[in-house]
Amino acid sequence: GQSLEQPSEVTAVEGAIVQINCTYQTSGFYGLSWYQQHDGGAPTFLSYNALDGLEETGRFSSFLSRSDSYGYLLLQELQMKDSASYFCAPLRTNTDKLIFGTGTRLQVFP
Amino acid sequence: GAVVSQHPSRVICKSGTSVKIECRSLDFQATTMFWYRQFPKQSLMLMATSNEGSKATYEQGVEKDKFLINHASLTLSTLTVTSAHPEDSSFYICSAGTSRSGNTIYFGEGSWLTVV
Prior knowledge:
The complex is a heterodimer of chains A (110) and B (116).
Chain A: E1 2-5, E2 9-13, E3 18-26, E4 31-37, E5 44-49, E6 53-57, E7 60-65, E8 70-75, E9 84-91, E10 104-109
Parallel strand pairs in A: 2-10
Antiparallel strand pairs in A: 1-3, 3-8, 4-5, 4-9, 6-7, 7-8, 9-10
Chain B: E1 4-7, E2 10-13, E3 19-25, E4 32-38, E5 45-51, E6 57-58, E7 67-73, E8 76-81, E9 90-97, E10 105-107, E11 111-115
Parallel strand pairs in B: 2-11
Antiparallel strand pairs in B: 1-3, 3-8, 4-5, 4-9, 5-6, 7-8, 9-10, 9-11
């Protein structure tokens, strides 16, 4: 089986930094992906961690601790366009299907 | 640009009819594609894994006779919602990956289905 925990909602102001946490339980673990989805749109890939540590991609970074079954997505210099839902999705193998949790809805205010 | 394309983006059909949604990988071959459904303000729910040249693998609780999946080529998978009912109205999204993309999965633009 698999379980995922993310905060349901996070709010912040423009320019701020936000961290979205994800804890997971899976029968096997290969890596952790993060996706962004705007209302009415399809998910888009943000970041992926296979190893412990921080992966940085522009304003977005993702962290993984395999021993803690924990990861987070860090969004810096928040912009209004970052208002969206964010999903973490663990992969059990390198060809595994993506199973999404309920996601975190981020609202950025001016 | 998009690497996975879906068609149609929006469709309205009458109750009892069938609707086909296409998912194409544009510049890579996808032996596996995935179909998701998403109701408003809810998460994406995996419906099935579409396997090229073989039967699809359905997730628990998804009716395989209602949601027919065909993956006849390495670039095309289709989802047919048969005998559609208003409760089937939803956002349907496909996804596919490629060994070139590592562990990145690309999603299609999604298809809004409204059954009236």
